[in-house]
Specification:
277 residues, mainly alpha, 3-stranded antiparallel sheet, flat
Length: 277
């Protein structure tokens, strides 16, 4: 089915209307902006004007991938999963495509010799790269898994336990890197956490939220399954997510804003510049 005047495409069983935000223009703007910032930050390592060809290639690539995303959306809806197509896949597929393409361009230019002025010496950066992966890896794994599981859901993320398992696996893999993040009991930290909790609850919107359909969804499965899902979700909220965010924001980003060699900065050091940034 194709109606060019109304921007509708699909099959007799499942049709979609291509709205402006789903047309691909936003993706082109995002990838061109991302590559522009990337080339500016690494202007001393990239070879110009050869690197400028990345801009039209990136725009064309994400345009084609967006068309494939719409094809996949129609295919999923036509195959008997219209709720998944309208729900998670519709909202997450575009972001997944952008992330994959953006990271792929960075990987190609960093590993390949065509766009590099000189081939990078891997031995010098190996240790720093390992530390960066250790602190950012859990956050990246959590975000990527959340996008993937949400893309194949119809509004309720039954695959949330997979997110917790993958994050736990990454944390265990790099556990030796976290020895500097020592445990301690601080009244100031507890007070800050309590104040943040109060502000968080006070700022919650009063209208119905995305979690209001949880009782109805959980009532469709046996009680043990519903209880297990809620228990895993609670562990994720209380244990996994705080640790992952602490490693990414305070363990890495807060220190990286102060020094390229972020491990030379004590993990407990406070900086107003990093805090405000």
């Amino acid at each position: 089915v194709s109606n060019a005047a109304r921007l509708i495409v699909g099959t007799p069983g499942f049709k979609v209307e291509i709205s402006p935000e789903c047309s691909g223009y936003e993706g082109i703007g995002l990838i061109v902006g991302f590559l522009g910032i990337y080339m500016w930050l690494y202007r001393r390592e990239l070879r110009f004007p050869a690197a400028l060809v990345l801009l039209p290639i990136g725009a064309a690539t994400i345009w084609i991938v967006n068309a494939l995303r719409i094809v996949a959306l129609v295919a999923i809806g036509t195959s008997g999963w219209p709720a998944v197509a309208r729900g998670g896949f519709h909202s997450q597929a575009g972001w997944m495509a952008f992330n994959v393409i953006a990271l792929a361009f960075v990987g190609v230019t960093m590993r390949g010799g065509f766009f590099q002025q000189t081939r990078r010496e891997r031995r010098e950066v190996a240790q720093a790269d390992t530390a960066t992966i250790a602190y950012l890896g859990p956050f990246a794994a959590m975000t990527a898994t959340a996008m993937l599981t949400a893309a194949f859901s119809a509004g309720f993320d039954w695959l949330y336990p997979l997110r917790l398992l993958i994050v736990a696996g990454v944390l265990w893999t790099f556990r030796k890197q976290y020895t500097e993040m020592r445990w301690s009991l601080s009244p100031v930290s507890i007070a800050l956490g309590a104040a943040t909790f109060v502000m968080w609850v006070a700022l919650l919107p009063g209208e119905p939220g995305v979690k209001d359909h949880w009782p109805a969804a959980l009532s469709t499965v046996p009680f043990p399954s519903a209880a297990a899902w809620l228990a895993v979700r609670g562990i994720g909220y209380v244990v996994a997510i705080p640790i992952v965010e602490e490693l990414a924001f305070r363990g890495f980003l807060g220190r990286r804003l102060l020094s390229a060699d972020f491990q030379s900065i004590a993990a407990w050091r406070f900086s107003w510049m990093a805090f405000l940034a």
